[in-house]
Amino acid sequence: MPLALVWFRQDLRLDDNPALHEALEQGYAPVPVYVHAPEEESGWAPGGASRAWLHRSLQALDADLRARGSRLLLRNGPTGPALSALLRETGADAIFWNRKYEPATQPRDAALKREWREQGLVAESFNGALLFEPWELATQQGGPYKVFTPFWRNALGRLRVPAPQAVPATLPSVAETFASEDLDALGLAARPAWDSGFWDKWHAGEAGAHEALEVFLDGALHGYRSDRDRPDRVGTSLLSPHLHFGEIAPWRVVGALEQVRTAANAADVDAYLRELGWREFAYHLLHHFPATTTANLNPRFEHFEWAPGDDRQLQAWRHGLTGVPIVDAGMRELWATGYMHNRVRMIVGSWLTKHMRQHWLHGARWFWDTLVDADLANNTLGWQWVAGTGADASPYFRVFNPVTQAQKFDPAATYISRWVPELQALPVAARFAPWLHAELARRLAPSYPRAPMVDLAQGRDAALAAYKRSAPAESR
């Protein structure tokens, strides 16, 4: 049987894997390979939390392959030379992979495909990550979308869910003569193990992804439309890191949702599908506007007066010491679990870019390093959205009040109490804004900051004044 390399990247699963499925369909014996080349990510090499997850996900993938008689080969980059060398070593006639969409990887992959085809090899790539690839949807004028609602309306009208593709119970063996790096040698695992608290919450790998989907369908899906904004409840799917690493296909998630759809839960199903739509929109934007990973999409902000970088304030924000309980709770949850509830992401992002008036890249870089679901498309969209600088963004002049946000979405201060335990002795009403209960806070929460690092009213006023000054002269 002829051999074909199956090049794994952010598609770390066996079911619903188009590249693996096609290799088998064409009669090849797959040789699974992963190439570690973070230096090729053009300034966005995976952060610490992503590397920790990747270590476990690769471990799980190799175990799944071995259970079927195969195994995963690990190689260090650069990618092109590593794969070309393996093609020669194995004598493989073909190479199959699923596409990535980041600005640094698309041109590299296209060049490799041309090179291998010129050598007479079969080289084919597939969509293994998205419901719609970024170039498949366009406005009526033929251009890219910048507003989500018409994008998603178009997508829903064309959405078709493919049938699941299960991997065979057995796979051809991979010869022991084909060398592989040791997983530990890739240096992915955290040293020291600062991520130890992550794994009480997460189960990396394909089995963990399917388990998370089942738990969601049985639980948080019911009431998702309202509870998804409540950090004090288990109201979300927790599928984002599994989707990012490709441990489950998005169309498998859609298919499962449609199977359980009823008249009673239809609004919740539609609300979750809409969140998957935002993921698709993020990839659409990244493909068409690749510079937005570091540059504002909205040119108005090219001359916006961001505050000078303040290391002391940024460190306080990163480590949950701002003096604003809901902000501090979110940042501590992030550090402890590699995750932050989406509503809280918006609150801490607004605090950073509005009250602190720090450039959104400070937040994007920190999230990139600390989130297990750090994804270049979604991270870019999220930060440009909350900062008001991107597509279909929340306007900059919409400044979240973190106190009222906490009172609305964490009404019993349950989330705050969990992550800011020094406030637990205070009455619930005082936990949202302890500086308004100064004497009580001094006695019952002496270790917590006496006041926010930025006065809420003054920070809001300064942000709005800076925004007004940034308006084009003809609109003033």
TrEMBL record:
<dbReference type="Pfam" id="PF00875">
    <property type="entry name" value="DNA_photolyase"/>
</dbReference>
<comment type="similarity">
    <text>Belongs to the DNA photolyase family.</text>
</comment>
<keyword id="KW-0285">Flavoprotein</keyword>
<dbReference type="InterPro" id="IPR006050">
    <property type="entry name" value="DNA_photolyase_N"/>
</dbReference>
<dbReference type="InterPro" id="IPR036134">
    <property type="entry name" value="Crypto/Photolyase_FAD-like_sf"/>
</dbReference>
<dbReference type="InterPro" id="IPR018394">
    <property type="entry name" value="DNA_photolyase_1_CS_C"/>
</dbReference>
<feature type="domain" description="Photolyase/cryptochrome alpha/beta">
    <location>
        <begin position="2"/>
        <end position="131"/>
    </location>
</feature>
<dbReference type="Pfam" id="PF03441">
    <property type="entry name" value="FAD_binding_7"/>
</dbReference>
<comment type="similarity">
    <text>Belongs to the DNA photolyase class-1 family.</text>
</comment>
<dbReference type="InterPro" id="IPR014729">
    <property type="entry name" value="Rossmann-like_a/b/a_fold"/>
</dbReference>
<dbReference type="InterPro" id="IPR036155">
    <property type="entry name" value="Crypto/Photolyase_N_sf"/>
</dbReference>
<keyword id="KW-0157">Chromophore</keyword>
<keyword id="KW-0274">FAD</keyword>
<protein>
    <submittedName>
        <fullName>Deoxyribodipyrimidine photo-lyase</fullName>
    </submittedName>
</protein>
<dbReference type="InterPro" id="IPR005101">
    <property type="entry name" value="Cryptochr/Photolyase_FAD-bd"/>
</dbReference>
<dbReference type="InterPro" id="IPR002081">
    <property type="entry name" value="Cryptochrome/DNA_photolyase_1"/>
</dbReference>
